[in-house]
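hi! just following up on the protien thing from before. the input was this:
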Amino acid sequence: MITGIKGTRLRRAAAVAVTTGAMFATGALTVAPAQAAPSAPSIAAKGGYVMNNATGASLYNKLADKTRSTGSTTKIMTALVVLKQPNLNLDSKVTIQKAYSDYIVDNNWASNAKLIVGDKVTVRQLLYGLMLPSGCDAAYALADKFGAGSTRAKRVQSFIGKMNATAKELGLKNTNFDSFDGIGKGSNYSTPRDLTKLASAAMKNSTFRAVVKTKKYTAKTTTKSGGTRTMAPWENTNPLLGSYSGAIGVKTGSGPEAGYCLVFAATRNGKTVIGTVLASTDGPTRKADATKLLNYGFTR
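and the predicted 3d structure came back as:
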């Protein structure tokens, strides 16, 4: 028989042991309340795709393989084709032709870098003029420079051929280009998935990464008479730069057929999320769509 203080202590210990055992059996001490996984966001854009840039894992999909007009997001491929050229000299100079400025006027004053006829502009500067203010004149100059052929028309077609060959190399099965800048002729299209894969490939190039994360760039070009012209600063059309923490690119696009498009990328805590929205309704909504998808991508 258990008596006295010693007996009381033993009875208390037994009670604690029983209670503790019951709690472990029911999981009361070890199981935290389940956290609901965030639901996929709703976006206004007709198509969207997000992936983990390091692994290629899909994080979000809305009609990701449906082809649509891409607007100036086409210029990602323009830049990549230039940067893939063998023995590329980024400091080589291109003389700006009247045809480039005429092209801007002929296309209802398309987005441009305000390049001056007769100026000599480096390839590096043209890449900034292409990707920041989305210069169609810079795109024309690059296509003319890096296409092959005896006439400007042949060189442009050669360059577009390189764009399509690169798309095939990258496995972009639902992509086709018929222009160097996104002002298409009915056969310039891609998908959110393909554009995201294209951007991921382009972001492997250090020059491309440096260009697309730049908010503002001022070019100093050589004039026809040999002097120096300081161009008006080119500002990046990407609304995420400076407003979304970790944003590192990539490219906007818009047009009557394309709607409002954005290929975007951001890095946080060593993780890079990259994606695309196509055919959003307006500029602010395009930005909101991309922000939602980036936020969601970082939770996956």
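The CA atoms of residues 170 and 198 lie 7 Å apart.
The chain is about 40% helix and 20% strand.
cheers
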